[in-house]
Structures are given as C-alpha cells and as structure tokens.
Amino acid sequence: MLYGRDTETAALEELLAGAREGRSGALVVRGDAGIGKTALLEQTVAAAGDLTVVRSSGVEFEAELPYAGLQLLLRRAMGSLDALPVPQRRALRAAFGLEADAASEPMFVGLAVLSLLSDHAGEGPLLCVVDDAQWLDRASTDALVFAARRLDAEGVAMVFAVRDGAGSFTAPGLPELRLGPLPEDAARALLADRGGAPADTVRTRVLSEARGNPLALLELPLGPSADARGAGGSAAAGGGLPLTTRLQMAFHGQVSHLPPGTQTLLLVAAADHTGDPDILVRAAAVLGVGVDDLPPAEEANLVYVDDEDMLRFRHPLVRAAIHQRAALPDRLAAHRALAEAADPVRDPDHRAWHLAAAATGPDEAVATALQRTAGRARERSGHAAASAAYERAARLSTDPVARVERLLLAAESASEAGDIPRARAFADQATRAAETEAEAAAVRGGAEPSSAPTARAEPGASPRASTPGGLAPAGSASGVDAAGQSAPPGSSGPGGPAPGDPASTADTGGVGGPVPPHPSGPGRPAPTEAASTAARGAANPLSAVRGRALYVRALADFWEGDFGAAHQLLLEAADLLAEADSAAAARMLVQATHTAWYLGDDEVAGTLGRLAALELPPWAPIRPVAEFLVRAIGPGSAAAGPPDVAEAAAASRAARGGRVDPRDLVMLCGVGLALGQDAAAYDLATTLAAESRESGGVGRLTTLMFFRAEAELFDGRLDEAVATASEGLRISRDTGQRQWVSQLSSALAHVAALRGDEDECRRLVDEALAGGAGTAMAPGAPWAYWSQGLLELGLGRTQFALDRLSLLTEPTVRHHISATRGVPDLVEAAVRLGVPERADEPLAGFEAWATRSGQDWARALVARCRALRAKDADAEAYFIEALARHDPHRRVLESARTALLYGEWLRRARRKSEARGHLRAALETFERLGARPWADRARSELGASGASVTVGQDTVRSVADEAGLTPQESQIVRLAALGLTNRDIAAQLFLSPRTVGHHLYKAYPKLGVVSRGELAALFPDT
C-alpha cells in the first residue's frame, strides 16, 4: 500500500475508470526525486487489471537519440503498424530508422502514436505509462505530448512521471498532479513498516532528513552512520548534501558491497539505455563479465528482468548512482565496450555516442561519426538531438574548419528545435571560431585552397567546398538558401511549446514568418547549382559564416517578438551574402519582408527595394517568388497591373522541376489575398492544405487554414470559415503555435461579431490579443481590431466602432489585409457620426487598391462607400452601381449590406415601397447567415417602411446549427456524407478512428439519423 497518497491514488483510479468507459485522458505526475512517482505508477499498473499496458522509462543517456524513448515504449504495439494510414506508417517507420526513403514528419509521428495505441488496445482500454519522462529525447516527448493532447474517445489513459529539476518535459495543456512530501503521520507509518526498530534518536534524525520523501525514508541508512549523525559524529557532513545526492550515495553504498564482476556488469547496464540483453551480453563480454555475475544484483533488489527479458533497475536513481559515481576509467571502459558491441551498420548512432562518451580528448574520427549521426537525426526531424550531436562533434574536432561548420549546424539545428539560448550561443561560437581561423590563415601567408583545412563531406551532413581562407562557402545544402519546410520551434515533434512560430505570419497578406534552413528539404541545391554557389562563395567565406550566424540570431529575435532586431539582422545577413550568392541574399530579403510586415509599410517597401536590386541567376528557385513579391507589393507596384497568383505558383513549381517549395507557395496564398485575388488564393491554399495533410506539414497547415478562413470570410461563407478556423485553432493549440492561436482566434472573433455574439467575440479577441511576444503587437491584432469595430457597428454603438476601426489606419497596421478590407466599415462608421473626413485618406487608398485589383466586388464596395458620402442627388447612382457590380451568388453578405444601406436611404427618401424589396432581400440573407445584428437592423427598417414583419422571428440556420452540432461534429458528418470511412476521416482531421466514431455516434441522434447512409441527403451541397 501507499501511505499518504489517497488523493493521488483516487485521481489515477478515475483516469482508469474513464478509459474503461471509452473516455481517454492524460496526467502528468510531477515531483522531486524519490517522492513516490514510480511507486504511484507501479500501483496504477497493478490496478489496471484488464487494461492493455504499454510502459517505458526515460534514461538520461538516451536524450541524444531521436525517438529512442518512443521506440522502446511502442515495441509491443508495433504489430499494429501495418493498420495505420500510409503517411503515418511511413513517418513512424522513418522515425525508427526502418524506412530510409521516407520523411519522419513530426505531426504524423504523433498521429501514428495515437493510432497505434488505439489499434493496439483493440476493442478494450489501454494504459500507457512513462516513468522519468524528463529524460525522454525531445522528438519522443513531442510525439507523445501531441498524441496526449488529441486523446478523446479511444479508451486510452496516458500517465507520465516527471522529476522536478532534471531534464525537460514540457506539456502545456495536459493536467498535472504534483506529489508533495508525505504528512508526518504517513512518514512515521512508512518508516515503521520498513522493519527493524531504530533508536528514537535515529528515527527522529531520519524523519528530519527525509522531509517526507518516501524513498529517503526507505533507503537512508539506519545503521551506525545514522547513529553517528544522531550523535553528531563525522558522518553528519552528509546531511548538508542535497537529498538526491544522499540517496545516490545510499544506493551506491549497496552496489559497492557486490562482487567486482557484478559491479562491472551493472555499470555497463547503467551506461546502456536500451536494456537489450544481446547488447548487454556482448558489451559485458568485452570486459570479461557475463550473465553469471547478475544474481547478486538481483538478490540485492537493485535490478530485475522484466517479462520481455529486459534488464530494469529498481529505481531510476539506482542507475544514476551507478553511472555517475563510478570511477572515470571504469565509466570510459563501459562506454568503449558498448561502442564495440553496437553494430556499426544497424546501430551507428548508439556506437557514435558511446565512442564520444569514451573519448578523452579531441578525436576527428569520432567527431565525423557524430556528425553523421547528427545528419541522420536532422533528417528524422530530431533537431534537438542533431544540435547536441553537432555541438559534441565540434568539441571533439581537430580540424578547425570542420569545427566552424559543426557549430553552425548545431546553431541551425537548435534554432529549428526552438532552443533559442543554445542557438544564439552556438552561432556566436561559430563566428568567433571562424574569425580565429581566418586570422590564423592570414598569418600562415594565405595557403592555397588545396592545403587549407577542409571539412570532410559526410553522409547526412552538409558537404562544404574548401576555400582559400580555410572556411566553407555560402549556399551549402544546410545554409540559408535551403528552402525545405521544417517544424515549428519547440516542436521538433508535435506538441512541444514554442517561443513563436517560424512558419507563421501576422495578418501579412501572405508573408509567413522566417523558417529555419533545413538540409534535406526540397530546396537542396542541384549539383550544378551547389557547385556554382561554392565557386561564388569562395570570394569571402568569412562573410558566409557570419551571414548564417546572423540568420540564426535573427530567427531567435523573431521568435522572442523583437521584430525590429530580427529585421535588421536579416538585412545585414543579406548584405554579407549578396556578392557571394545573390540567391541566398534574396532568400534573406524574402524573410526580411516577413519581419518588415510587423514594423510598417515603409520597412516593407525598403526591403522589397533591396530585393528588386538583386541580380538573380536564372536557375535560382527563389527568383519567381522574389519577382512576384516585387511586382505585387514592391516600390512602384501600385502603378502596374498586379501579377497573377496562379501563374506565379506554376512558375515557382517549374523552377524546381515540379518539386514544390511549400513555404514559397504558402506565401503566394497570402499575397494573393493582399492583391484581392481571393478565389485564386483560396484554390491554391486548398491544394496546398491537401498536400500538407498528406505530408504532415503542420507548420504550413495552420497557415493555410488561416488563409482559407480569410477567403471564406471575405466570401461570406461563415459556417465554412468557422469549421476551417476551428480546426486550425485546435491544431495550433496542440502544436504550441501561439502565432496561429492568435490569428485564428481573431478570425473566429470576426464571425462572432457578424453574428452579434458579444461575449464570444470579446473572449476570442482577448485570446487573439494575448498572443504577442515581448513588446510586439499580437499577430492577430489587426483582425481583432476589425472584429471589435464590426461588432460595435452592428450593435449600433458607432462611436466605439469608429474608435476601434481607426486603429487599422496606424502606420504599423494599415498595410495588413484586414486594414484594407475594413475600410468600408470605417467609412460607414465615420459617415454615421457625421465625420466622413476621418475616412478620407483610408478611402483614397482603398479606391486605388480596388482599381488595381480589377475585381468587380472591390469596385462595388468603393461605389457603396461613395454612395454613403455623396449628396442625395448623387448617392443613388452609386448604390445602383454597387448592386450591379455585386455577384448575387458570391459575397452575399456584402451584397446584403449594400442592399440594406440602399434600402435605408430609400426609406429616408420616403420611397418606402422601393425600399421594402431591398430590405427584405437583405433580411433573408442576414437570417440565413445568422448575422443577427444586421438582421435586426433590416427588420427594423422594414417595419419602418410599413411592411409587416414578425419581430424576433427565428433565423434560418444550417442543418448543422439546427441540430446543435459542434464544429468538429459538423466537419466529421460532412466528410462522412461524402462516403469517407472513419479511418479516412481520422487521417484527414488528425484524429483517431475511435474518436471519429464517437463523434458520429453523438451526431446521429442530433440529426435524427441512424446510419451514415442518410447523411448525404442532409448535406447535398457537401
């Protein structure tokens, strides 16, 4: 039994009960070392009874190997691998090194975990237990937390035990249970239950030193040393040590009494995280010991062999005590033995890390092996592990040029992993090391390229051409011109929190935030391109190193919300690279356009001016995008016709031989919206979203869903916008993309404003505005301001509306899409308050924008604005023009608002019979869309015109709204109506099949159906 843990036991029993009833849940148990986490997990496993159980434990030494912890946890569930959707199956196989040609997209790995656990459980519940989760590798942590966040109706219970003050296990959004010290009566009862009859002085001393820690009560010695402490003897010095250290000393004391061969065997086992008996036996044999030396350790209750023949330590601190307190020569020998035991072909990464652990000084061969390991980790999206390997390789380097390259790669990988402090530190170290080597090369008298130190090209790492200065050129596969899509920082796997979102943007009209370079993405230069780049980069290799380092620092500033600093660093980096590699400089300036969008239109214009001045080679993949940006929104662009989004997308694909660069095309979606090419932008976003669902590009998917939601809002498809934005918001929260939580919340706030849901609108606006980092404006702020203004305008609080809408005219905001599209609302508010001049300048800009866009709907809005500001003699002509330009089948909300305003004008002109037709048409549209404030206003005007109106009549709503379906239920039933299976729907919406089935089960009675075959008739337009 567990003493003093009744509340905690009850919480875990409730979790198990929920799993048995088909409800999933997760719990993170946190506390100090020895506080009882492991015991609580053991009790939970014992209470699981009929539940399928999968379990594992993190090990400190495995943190450098991506997905090592996950592979150990899922080893018994891998029999269900073939049942997974193909993208998930390939991603998980790639993550585990079982499939060489596939990419391990982090989100698909997380989804595969969810699906695999659900399938492994069959029809029954499952318990997943992970002890010492703080030692899991980052990729495993992200995958498990992502899966835990998406648990719903699978009957899966996940429990993680995490030690305070060690390692890292960040799981925002998951419920936590914190274990504190035992109450005094429970501590006394546990000590009494330990056995023996210690003297009162010893009992008092142990209770005092243990401070309610159960493991300390059980393990701190009761013998002479304890009596000595009680008597003030020399052993009292131990009392000043941290409790964890004293517990390790206690465990090590038990080990030290074992036979030498047993101690050696335990040290090898402690240095190996796998517990694999074959590896242990081979390594032990190298040191002259074997399984015959194991029984004394089992008899001492230090280790045990589990039901899978894996060697396990009784408590994680036993392993730590053995490894950390072993003599250095013995520890080095254990790692050398494990390196010798590891298969260099099947398990090169374990071998490399054990060689590194056994190294006593710089060793280029070991550094090269670690660089290869880092390259493999990066290809599997294990960016944190890659960074650690590159950094260790740099410290082991004897080649100074290789050391610079490895430090740069460590910085770039840390940046991709969202580890800002380490990214900065490695970038600075690389710059200093490069400067030192350049100075040394100068002292040597300018060695010929062939005699200069050269970093060797390794598989999985980035080859570098040698240069006269001994430094690598710009534009390598891992450099700043790489165009591969990488995961969000803090999310080298799904679910980890991020200081920001590198693939994101504020309401930029298609400008995504800076994206870290990636060595294996589609932007890797072709051989001829790389050779050309290397030749040009030889001119000033030190500039190339500084440029890459500045890029890493710029990303760090961007993620911390210092957009001004990030922008300046990107400009500096582009200047450094412009001469050696104009394509790389262009990539920097495209990224600088992203940061400029947060600063103001002057910064945007200045950055695009620099981009226009670059002479790009015809083969550069960035060229079509750069030219499109300059023509679309660059200096002087307003005087020319806008470029076509669809043509630019086709050119961008063609520049890569048909291989798409998703980041560039995502940006085209937003720029298309900025140009008013909503339909083309929507189509492109829809296509890219489908591709991202197939590839697992979660960093892109949320961006695309925001652009889709924008286009749907502009088109008046409010239900679709809610479904799109809600799914995007859920994914953003699950993956820690705060940027898109802000953006998508503001989009949903806009729908709430249109529908007059004041409380919901304000809640969503608050969430959107809370998304700023540092002193920066929240990414969703422009849409939030527009939503606030629209809410007030609809509710008739015109002064408040004007105040909020006026925020969109500020220099730092006025170039955003929402600021442009909100001008007609600003004009209406200003006219109603009798201050039309407040909108003069914004309206002039809007008129110019509408003319350039060439869109009839934009010209219709201009005509409506002119009608509101015109004298009565001229107003009607503008209203008629506006209505004529509106498409009756598209953008029906704006058409209805024009009809409402015209009807109001006609009624005031005492032309009531003419007014009624327009007002009634507007009312029908508002009611169909659920735009309550506008429907109330139309109804009031209709009544004032003498028409018979039922006050407060029910709004015509969609089938989903009438049935009371949640946004997720609505999305699932619509897909089911198309004939998709539960597994197909689950793969598309990133859910488990069980969760899909659960939502359909809840939706059927709401809709009054009993099978999915009846859904098609309810949703014929799906």
Structure description:
The chain is mainly alpha-helical. 60% of the residues lie in helices and 4% in strands. It is built from 49 helices and seven strands. A hairpin with a 5-residue loop joins strand 6 and strand 7 (311-313). The protein starts with 5 loop residues before the first helix and ends with a helix. 59% of the residues are buried. Residues 223-239 and 447-539 have low confidence and may be disordered.
- Protein structure class: mainly alpha
Number of helices: 49
Strand content: under 5%
Rg, please? 32 Å
Distance N to C terminus: 57 Å
Assembly level: single chain
- Biggest sheet architecture: 5 strands, parallel
Total DSSP E strands: 7
What is the averaged pLDDT score? 82
Q: Provide the low-confidence segments as ranges.
A: 223-239, 447-539
Strand ordering within the main sheet: 2-3-4-1-5
Q: Work out the helicity level.
A: 55-70%
Coarse shape: globular
What brief labels describe this structure?
1022 residues; mainly alpha; 5-stranded parallel β-sheet; two-stranded antiparallel ribbon; 60% helix
Summed up, what is this model?
The chain is built from 49 helices and seven strands.
SSE blueprint:
Elements: H1 6-20, E1 25-31, H2 37-48, E2 52-57, H3 68-73, H4 86-95, H5 106-121, E3 126-131, H6 138-149, E4 156-163, E5 176-178, H7 184-193, H8 200-210, H9 214-219, H10 224-230, H11 243-256, H12 260-271, H13 277-286, H14 295-299, E6 303-305, E7 311-313, H15 316-324, H16 328-341, H17 348-358, H18 364-379, H19 383-396, H20 400-416, H21 420-443, H22 527-537, H23 541-559, H24 563-578, H25 582-597, H26 601-613, H27 623-633, H28 645-655, H29 662-674, H30 678-695, H31 698-714, H32 718-735, H33 738-754, H34 758-769, H35 781-794, H36 798-806, H37 817-821, H38 823-832, H39 840-853, H40 856-869, H41 872-885, H42 892-908, H43 912-929, H44 932-944, H45 959-963, H46 967-977, H47 982-989, H48 993-1007, H49 1015-1018
Parallel strand pairs: 1-4, 1-5, 2-3, 3-4
Antiparallel strand pairs: 6-7
Helix pairs in contact: 1-2, 4-5, 5-6, 8-10, 11-15, 12-15, 12-16, 13-16, 16-17, 17-18, 18-19, 19-20, 20-21, 20-23, 21-23, 23-24, 24-25, 25-26, 26-27, 27-28, 27-29, 28-29, 29-30, 29-31, 30-31, 31-32, 31-33, 32-33, 32-46, 33-34, 33-35, 34-35, 35-36, 36-38, 38-40, 39-40, 40-41, 41-42, 42-43, 42-44, ...
